[in-house]
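Try this one yourself first.
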């Protein structure tokens, strides 16, 4: 089995992703007889991409905060470059682009379903409920994505030596990056609650 998967190109991550998308579409067509001109199906596809991006984003956020950051002090100094030069830059690549794609697909989904204005205004004037819940989740996601691109990523580039900076700038970058990441971890808890409750409670 392993040899067959290797021959099919499973050693390359991009092939695995492409195969996963193909299998999902083929199985969806078989199971549901999807019509490609069905608006509801396309709205679902955008929701699916939004959720898949969010799984990648929050999964990596929690990996950084629950696994990598607490483990760094326990790693011998001669082994730390494996994390800072190889693992962290790759994880941060997927982390920041997953954050952006989660945000983009979420906004497209809100627009497609006609609640973007209600959600972004937190349901003011509409009696609360679902628009308020999804709106709180959206605003928390927007703030978190801002933190990723405007605070965490610029400072992580200094910390990891991906941009030129002085030793003082590198040292100073650790606190804002770390605190923004911790804020996002905290915010991810209510954000996920409100996103899920909007679909299941209201």
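Now uncover the answer:
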């Amino acid at each position: 089995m392993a040899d067959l998967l290797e021959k099919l190109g499973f050693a390359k991550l991009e092939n695995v992703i492409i195969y996963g998308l193909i299998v999902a579409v083929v199985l969806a067509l078989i199971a549901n007889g999807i019509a490609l001109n069905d608006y509801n199906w396309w709205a679902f596809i955008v929701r699916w991409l939004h959720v898949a991006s969010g799984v990648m984003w929050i999964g990596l956020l929690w990996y950084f905060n629950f696994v990598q950051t607490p483990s760094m002090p326990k790693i011998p100094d001669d082994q730390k470059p494996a994390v800072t030069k190889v693992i962290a830059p790759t994880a941060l690549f997927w982390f920041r682009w997953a954050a952006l794609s989660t945000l983009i697909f979420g906004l497209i989904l809100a627009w497609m379903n006609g609640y973007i204005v209600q959600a972004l205004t937190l349901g003011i004037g509409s009696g609360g409920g679902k628009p308020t819940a999804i709106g709180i989740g959206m605003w928390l996601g927007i703030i978190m994505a801002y933190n990723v691109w405007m605070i965490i990523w610029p400072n992580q580039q200094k910390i990891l030596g991906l941009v030129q900076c002085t030793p003082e700038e590198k040292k100073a970058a650790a606190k804002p990056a770390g605190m923004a990441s911790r804020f996002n971890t905290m915010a991810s808890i209510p954000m996920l609650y409100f996103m899920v409750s909007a679909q299941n409670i209201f």
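Discussion: Residues 42-200 form one domain. The radius of gyration is 20 Å.
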